[in-house]
Task: inverse folding
């Protein structure tokens, strides 16, 4: 009974304010247009969120990020410092924005925040994985490499060929005691300096002349101080 009386009082208060000119009645078309704009914005931002999410997956896959976890702690640190985290942050910002827009709908605002966020994140991740599976970004990347992508070409070239800090790919030319020489991808000849004897013995046992490897370390005066390494079974971008 108290609840019904409260509703009645609220209704009478609203009616009296409308009759008194305190509240201006909006035409039905106003609410239709508003709903259309909200739904349209939600749809467009959701598509944008899927694009950015799938772009993050493309960067991860095209650069074979998991490969660097085999180069040791220094390799992992190099990936962390080199990864385009701005895309990840943008992806999370879009998800939060979708949550804010979604609060205009009863199915969203009646649910706890954590529930709706989980649903939006799940839909975004699933959609991003689906888009990435279509190889759309791979096609754009190839077009960018061939200078056939006028819009976004530079972005795709940078993301598809991520420059991992202090990561050097090349071929072992000669092994003689602790003096090793390596030809980098740009055909520069450098020597490898291994100060850790334990690591040196492990490298010596795994790497042979002619091996393709990636070395983690700073290049200075045609010498690399080896902090991490891993053998590469093919080309850097295709068969790590």
Result:
């Amino acid at each position: 009974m108290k609840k019904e009386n409260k509703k009645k009082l609220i209704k009478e208060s609203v009616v009296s304010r409308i009759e008194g000119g305190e509240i201006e009645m909006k035409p039905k078309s106003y609410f239709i247009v508003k709903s259309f704009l909200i739904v349209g914005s939600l749809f467009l931002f959701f598509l944008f969120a899927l694009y950015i999410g799938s772009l993050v997956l493309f960067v991860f896959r095209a650069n074979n990020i998991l490969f660097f976890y085999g180069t040791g702690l220094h390799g992992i640190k190099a990936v962390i410092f080199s990864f385009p985290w701005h895309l990840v942050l943008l992806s999370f910002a879009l998800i939060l924005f979708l949550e804010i827009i979604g609060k205009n709908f009863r199915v969203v605002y009646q649910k706890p925040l954590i529930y709706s966020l989980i649903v939006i994140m799940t839909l975004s991740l699933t959609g991003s994985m689906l888009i990435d599976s279509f190889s759309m970004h791979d096609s754009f990347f190839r077009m960018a490499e061939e200078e056939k992508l006028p819009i976004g070409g530079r972005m795709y070239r940078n993301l598809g060929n991520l420059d991992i800090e202090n990561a050097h790919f090349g071929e072992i030319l000669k092994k003689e005691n602790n003096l090793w020489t390596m030809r980098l991808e740009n055909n520069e000849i450098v020597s490898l300096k291994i100060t850790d004897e334990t690591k040196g013995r492990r490298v010596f046992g795994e790497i042979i002349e002619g091996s393709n490897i990636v070395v983690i370390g700073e290049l200075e005066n045609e010498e690399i101080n080896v902090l991490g390494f891993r053998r590469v079974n093919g080309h850097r971008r295709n068969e790590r």
